[in-house]
Amino acid sequence: MDAAYNLARWLVRDEHDAQDVVQEAYLRALRFAGGFRGGDPRAWILAIVRNTAFTWLKRNRGPASPTEFDEEMHSAAGEESGLEADAVRRADGAMIRAALEELADDFREVIVMRDIEGLSYKEIADAADVPIGTVMSRLARARGKLARSLQERIGKDRITKEPA
Amino acid sequence: MTCDDARVLMHGHLDGELDLVDDLDVQRHIEECPRCASEYAALRAMRTRLKDDAFRFEAPPALKEKIRRAIPASTTTRANGYQSRRGAWVPRAVRFAAPMAIGAMLALIIAPRMFAPALNQQLASEVVASHVRSLMATHLMDVASTDQHTVKPWFNGKLDFSPPVTDFAKDGFPLVGGRLDYIEGRPVAALVYQHGKHVINVFMWPTAGTATSAERIETEHGYNVEQLTVAGMNCWMVSDLNQMELDNFANLIRTKG
């Protein structure tokens, strides 16, 4: 159940809402237990959590951020600057959390499923209902964005703390 | 390998999700290209940071308790509902079914890993994943040749067995090449055939059984998978071909391969 809660918590970004989402998801899972056709039960329950969370977000916070559009806009620009391991290592927990929360839902969820929850590409494909081939390319974009966002934050941080 | 390819594939490399050959290719590229090396180092550093438990939210105990209590309750309510509407013989069945449903749900919550997929299902998923990766990563073949006498010797020294390689061009399934792959924790031979625009991956590795076994067909993610044992080789075929055509192909392998 921790995996379900962790995903919901990152998707809706609120402790109480996440609890509501998980509870609703488990009740749905119970109602549709017949829909479980073998395979990985963790991916199955996470798929339900994910759908519940997105329905919840739509109902309570208006239409989702236009990920697809955003994806196109950013894929060309901004990715030319190289990444530095050093900058990533200097980021503190609050920075990482903020950067991750600002990512588009589609990107945030693959990072949460892979890097925090440790799911395989196959499990992610099942849970997020995308072809397995999409998982790696989406992860590549998501991680690239997250790392760049951390680098920018580090840059800004340095400027405010040590005015040149 | 170009930097553009490497920048996507390095994620699969980082996650241990690539087949053997792609994995080595990316590794080599990262070693040779300083730009990709620094990108890879940054990604590794980031992944290490994200593994920190600080980023993983645990479900509050109260929530776990609430859900565990809610599940049997909702099933019981339904059982009572039937009882009032339908006389006395139904509840006996419901009384029998409800604890089973509850048990299944609790097992799902408490021990999700209990329902591990059967070996065949797992293997089927593995070969489909390999098939998809071979198409996705533009790394379908290590040796591109329609000549079985070029493809077969290519495997020498790369595998501890010699896979049967036959060209079925006359039957509409030309051999186009071969590749090393990695299935079930061991290097295997992957033969690539074509039928029209469809690609068929045939994965082969030795098995203890020598008899020709009946084939089994399954569908995974829209791909058809067929398995048979022929001449001591475990043989898995994956393609987006329809089942009938894949079946025809399997027959060729069984009778002429």
The termini of chain B sit apart by 34 Å
- Biggest β-sheet strands, sense, barrel of chain B: 7 strands, antiparallel
Counting H and I runs of at least 4 residues, what is the number of helices of chain B?
A: 8
Strand order of the largest sheet of chain B: 1-2-3-4-7-6-5
Structural class of chain B: alpha+beta
Low-confidence stretches of chain B: 74-96, 111-119
Assess the beta-strand content of chain A as a share of residues.
under 5%
Residue windows where pLDDT falls under 50 for at least 5 positions of chain A: 68-78
Task: State the order of secondary-structure elements of chain A, H for helix, E for strand.
Answer: HHHHHHHHH
Which two protein chains have the largest interface (Cβ within 8 Å of the partner's Cβ), and how many residues from each?
A-B, 56 and 55 residues
Global structural class of chain A? mainly alpha
- Please give the alpha-carbon distance between the first and last residues of chain A: 49 Å
How does the overall form of chain A come out from the CA principal axes? globular
